[in-house]
Amino acid sequence: MIRLKSYLLLLICVLIFGFKETSFHEYKIEGFAQGTTYVVKYYAKRETVNKNSIDSIMRAIDESMSLYLEQSLITKFNRSESGFKMDHHFMKVYNEACRISKETNGLFDATIAPLVQLWGFGPKKIEKLPDEMSIITALNCVGMNKIEKERMFLRKKVPCVKLDFNGIAQGYTVDLIASFLKQRKLKYFMVEVGGELYVNDIKPNGQAFKIAIEGPLNSELNSNGIKHVIEVKRGAVTTSGNYQKYIMNGKQRISHHINPKTGYPLENEMVSVTVYAKDAMTADGYDNALMAMKVEEAIAFVARRRDIEAYMIYTKVNGELADTLSSGFKKMIVN
């Protein structure tokens, strides 16, 4: 009788815990925001988050940092002569932008807005490419040291300084959505906005989320494909590259990545940089800065840090494509 009870108890436990995985359902939310697409995928016993809640977060960030909204805080700051009072979203991104700018010796600079617009990658269209004098003039308006923070107020030291958070704001968006999902007690999820993503834990079935790393397949940079597949159990992966967003001037390809120190588009060997970090805003900021470095400098920079790993695609002297990666990133590759 005792053995029979033990057997029944074991059978009940197997039934309960064996079917625990099937009690989770996959929920997927998709949409369009910030000029790109987004996907939120989570696993739960019932629907916990809907599209309206995600879109509400997107709108809040746009109202703070979108260069394409006339009434956003960043637009009001950029148009002002002296500065503007910001919200907590803006200040979080601004503080992180300052930190990464300092860490990268100014290669990441959120005051690059005048140069971005000058080269035709801003909200307004241009009729011709800038001349040397226009670039010199714009450089006088660039530099994180041209802004002072007084609590929630950002004060301009020079009236022409303007901010552009496009190199970091999507990462913050991903982090904010991830934080919201955690607040709703969700454990298994993935958030992706415009290719920048965050993964929280493995799937309920024990499998890790697999992420495809894309990149150019030839030296002409006109063909794109999957370079590697990685597994991420928790953390963020973001990518920055110059082979998809550019303008042509005759046969010259002009990158949308502008060097904040010279005022000219990048012409180094970097083609694409993918960064892994604990959060998406950190990864997003560093992938842009690494794009502005030479390969050897970028490898050394990542090796000195414990908070990021990186995979880089670059062009060799003979024009052929090559890649390199940090030791930590190599461990994540499954294909």
Describe the structure.
- By secondary structure, this protein is α+β, with helices and mostly antiparallel strands.
- It has two domains: 23-45 and 174-332, T-fold (Roll); 68-156, ApbE-like superfamily (T-fold, Orthogonal Bundle), CATH 1.10.3980.
- The protein is 33% helix and 28% strand.
- It is built from ten helices and 15 strands.
- The protein has helices at 2-18, 51-65, 73-79, 88-103, 113-118, 132-139, 169-183, 280-291, 295-303, 327-332; strands spanning 25-33, 36-44, 83-85, 147-150, 153-156, 188-193, 196-200, 209-216, 224-232, 234-241, 246-249, 252-255, 270-277, 308-315, 321-325.
- The strands form four sheets. An eight-stranded antiparallel sheet has the order 1-2-6-7-10-13-14-15. A three-stranded antiparallel sheet has the order 3-5-4, with helices on one face. A two-stranded antiparallel ribbon has the order 8-9.
- Strand 4 and strand 5 form a beta hairpin.
- The termini are far apart.
- 37% of the residues are buried.
